[in-house]
Amino acid sequence: MRRAKHSLGFTLVELLVVISIVIALATIVWKANAGLATRNALQTQQRVFDVLGDAVAAYLEVYSDYPSQPETLQVVMDAFKDEILLRDRIAGDSEVLYEMLDSLMDSRHLLSRLHTGCVTDLPRSGESNGNSKPEIRDVWGTVLFYQSTTSFPLFISAGPDRRFDTADDVRSK
Ligand SMILES: [Ca+2]
Fold first, then answer.
1. With left for phi above 0 and alpha for psi between -120 and 50, is residue 143 left, alpha or beta?
2. Does residue 102 sit within a domain?
């Protein structure tokens, strides 16, 4: 009787140790996978920036200017430069960028290299999509922020947390 009790106690301790080890290993594997997924996503996002950079460069070569933002939008941006939420409100401007790049054959060709998930609301051939225009999104699904400046334009992704102006934002180089 005593022996059976002792054996049961030993098994419970063993069980707890095994559970602890399994939890620790699972945590390590999970963290490693999460880190790998984030690194892969960041690499994919940099490739998206590279493609967009090439498309903008092709545009620059033909028009001697960068694809611009609508003048009214630029005025709003200048006025509210410091507003953190501004980028969330105006990020939809990537559809203007897409439209301008899509208007030039060389740039359009480059845009076709973008990961399909990074361009949304693309009308199917021969099908009207109403007022909806294609938008360029980052690999996490948030519309990209595009800032046309006098130097090379800047692209900003809101990053994994999908919010702008936080530490994980990703900028084009
Ligand atoms: Ca962010």
1. beta
2. yes
The boundaries of the domain holding residue 113 are 40-171
CA of 6 relative to ligand 1 center, distance in Å: 55
The pLDDT tens digits of the residues spanning 66-100 come to 887 655 555 656 665 655 445 555 544 677 788 88
C-alpha 48/C-alpha 46 separation (Å) is 5
Is the full-model pTM beyond 0.85? no
Q: Give distance in angstroms: CA of 104 to centre of ligand 1.
A: 31
143 C-alpha to ligand 1 centroid (Å): 12
Which CATH number covers residue 167? 3.30.700
Distance 166 CA to ligand 1 centre (A): 4
Whether residue 19 is contained in a domain is answered as no
| pLDDT score at 144 | 87
Task: State how many domains the chain has.
Answer: 1
Amino acid at 41: A
CA of 163 to the centre of ligand 1 (A): 4
Calpha distance 55→169 (Å, rounded): 22
**8 in any annotated domain:** no
